[in-house]
Amino acid sequence: MIDVIKLYDYKPAFGFAAQHLTYPDKLDFHPDFLEESFPADHPAAAHLRTYWDEMHTRSLDDIRELYTETFDFQKNCTLYMTYFKFEDAKERGQMLVRLKVLYEMFGLEMPEGELPDFLPLMCEFLYAAEWRDDPNAPENFRLLMAVLEDGTYHLLRSLEALGNPYAHLIRGLRETFKACLEREASGL
Question: DSSP readout, 78-105?
Fold first, then answer.
């Protein structure tokens, strides 16, 4: 089960990820953005520092080219999290509907023409949604976290195989998810 309070505390990290997983803009690389989103004690800080340092060795044009080559032209690096499991099967459509309903439950209106399994949108939802006082949030977020876990696992493997710096960003997201898992008491 997900610890929604910890998840809530990491909202800035999800805002950072949403920004960095959309087409790059100069403001995405402002020096304060990383520190505000990933303080030194954040579970993903080391991975994001590596990502940040690697991206800062490139020009903005090079980063934009890398983004396009990676996410627009590499089928195995899609940002659509249900595609890895379902591709275009009927089950994918059902999962997309369930995600859309979840977003609407928490007040997010879907952008026109966007699918609800688009990773930047999912991160934006985690950044913007208000669930702190919702007693049903842990149960409702189970689906979202399962889709994120499965999709980012496959995406990370593909990015690592390419030696792509975005792998560090995705690894950081996965470490953040992992830090939000509730630990069950052992029966020892």
Answer: -SBTTHHHHTTSHHHHHHHHHHHHHHHH
CA 16 to mean position of chain CA atoms: 9
Confidence (pTM): 0.92
> Distance of CA 175 to CAs 13, 77, 149, Å?
11, 19, 10
**Cβ(4)–Cβ(182) under 8 Å?**
no
d(CA 144, CA 122): 8
Is residue 44 pLDDT above 90, yes or no? yes
Q: Which residue has the tokens 């976290």?
A: 145
Measured distance CA(42)–CA(37) in Å, rounded:
9
